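Protein Record: Sequence and Backbone Structure Tokens
======================================================
Scope: a single protein chain, as residues and as a discrete description of its fold.
Tokens: labelled as protein backbone structure tokens, with as many entries as the chain has residues.
Position: the record begins directly beneath this header, with no further notes in between.
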Amino acid sequence: MAHKEPSSTDLDARYSDPRAAAGDWADAVTRLTEAEVFWLSTVRPDGRPHVTPLLAVWQRDALYFCSGERERKVLNLNENREVVLTTGTNALGEGHDLVVEGEAVRVTDEARLRELAALWECKYGSAWHFDVKDGAFGGAEGPALVFGVTPRTAFGFAKSPYGQTRWRFA
């Protein structure tokens, strides 16, 4: 499936092995699609950071995540929609880490939510089945709001050889 290409791709020589090449965005999209756990960083109303692990799906050039409407991350998003999502490994010499920066935009269209709910279940299994109701995912704990993050800037951190790529999107 075609994806939006970055407007610029840069390898930062300061943090890259001389043998490294700029990462390919198509490879990063594959990694974002296949990754199981992401870390979401938001900002509390008093300016302190908040980071939490969560599940996410990649589709249509964006990462999507969900959260209960009273959870800290949603309370933070009510004040500041700027987020960072990260995924990768905790190994030093292998793997690839990715960082996606952008604005978290709430998804309320029920047809779109049903499509995303099907993606969640396909990726994570039947334990992650969601019904759609009133512009949110329905669950045992109450509604889960869904947000999409289209990358404004993304970073790829290769580990063998070390390389730091920055992708910017218009």
Summary: The first helix runs from residue 25 to 34. The mean pLDDT is 95. The domain at 8-108+142-168 is CATH 2.30.110.10 (Pnp Oxidase; Chain A). The chain has one domain: 8-108+142-168.
